Amino acid sequence: MRDVKEIRRWVEEYEKYCQATEFGDDLEQNEALCEEFQTFMVSLNDTGKRLEFINEYSVQLVEANHSDINDIKLQTDTINERFEKLRSICKEREVNLEIAQKMHKFNFDVNEAIRWIQAKAVLLTSEEYGEDMTSVNTLLNTHLDIVREVETLSEKVDKLEQDAENLCQTHPERSEEVNTKYDELKELWVKIKESSALRKQKLEESFKYHKFLVHYRDLGMEMERLETLFDQKKEPRDVAESVVFLDEHDQYMVQMQCWHESFAILKETGSVIAGVHIEESQVKEKVEELEGLWETVNKTWSTLHAQLVAHKQYQSWSRDYEVVTAWLSSKEYIVGESYIGNSLDEVETQLKKLEDFNQSLKAQETKIGALESSGREMIEAEHFASQEIADRISDTAARIERIQEKKEKSTDCDSALIPLL
């Protein structure tokens, strides 16, 4: 009977424990309670074994017609009844602890995922987009690393969604709590995916913008360099130098045509960027600036090209003019010679010289006429050397006129002497 009383006291003591509604405020507390409960279940099983022994001993006493048989049956039945009630209460607590553990585990996993997403969201909502192509590229690589990390969480989010569905099916009374918690995670998950895509887009736009700036600076510097070369260009001193200068100038145009293709691409890129980038006004301003610079360089090239062509034209004309004037200088002494001869042979020789000079002069007059015609064309075109060309044409015409007068006078004198000799 002593054992029965001890078991009764033990049952009374742990009935209150098993009826407790404390299941832990979080996973850690719940796990501690579950561990404590498992320890209790060991004790319960041990007590159950003691009760089995008491029941066997009670049966023996009843079969032996013990004097207190009625009391023995009453106490045995009572303790068995209370012990079974305790078992039932324990089973209920075990189930409740298990449900609480699942809920705490679900909440713990969801909260952990939420904290992780919130930590990454700080990086994905950053407004730092780089100061140049290198820094933007670094930010892009960092962003891609974060995106890969975010993608690894996708499986966990899917698993938590499945856990939420399972909890709602097995414990419909907790459905509202489960769905509210999972919806909090789902909302953050959708936002971080959107933030990730938006930041990638903005970083790519920033990369294009800084790439645009690099090409803008390079192309602008090349145009300014060429403009400086144009300003430093010297005037050619002769035909050969004019040809060299023109050839160099034509090479500049080949280079400018390559720039024109680059500028067309840059302008198109600028138009695209200006439509989406935060620096829209700056992009448009720089495109307009390059357009102005490009127009200036083209005008300067055209002006300088026209000047070089004009110099070459004048140098060629001047070279041919010098040849004619040199010939006139070399032959002018013939008609200006005062010696007419002392004999018939000498006079005839002088006449022969004048006749030969006359034929040569006629041949040169064709060249002189062509020079005069091309010279007047340059004057009509308002050539920069118009006055000098006009002076030379006038000087040459006057010189030929003087030669003609001298030639006629010499011819008359020589012809008059022949009858006298």
Write the layout of secondary structure elements.
Layout lengths: L1 H17 L8 H37 L5 H56 L8 H38 L4 H57 L7 H36 L5 H57 L7 H37 L5 H32 L4
Helix pairs in contact: 1-3, 2-3, 3-4, 3-5, 4-5, 5-6, 5-7, 6-7, 7-8, 7-9, 8-9
Radius of gyration: 58 Å
Instruction: Report the biggest beta sheet as strand number plus sense, adding barrel if it closes.
Output: none
Kindly report the average pLDDT value. Answer: 78
Share of helical residues: over 70%
State the end-to-end distance.
Answer: 193 Å
Q: What percentage of the residues does DSSP assign to strands (E)? A: under 5%
Q: Count every helix, treating DSSP H or I runs of 4 or more residues as helices.
A: 9
Per the principal axes of the C-alpha atoms, what is the gross shape? Answer: rod-shaped
Number of strands: 0
Any overview of this molecule?
The chain has 421 residues and is mainly alpha-helical. It has nine helices and no strands. The protein has helices at 2-18, 27-63, 69-124, 133-170, 175-231, 239-274, 280-336, 344-380, 386-417. Helix 4 packs antiparallel against helix 5. The longest helix is centred in the middle third of the chain and has 57 residues, at 175-231. The protein is rod-shaped and about 190 Å long. The chain starts with a helix and ends with a helix. The model is unreliable at 412-421 (pLDDT under 50).
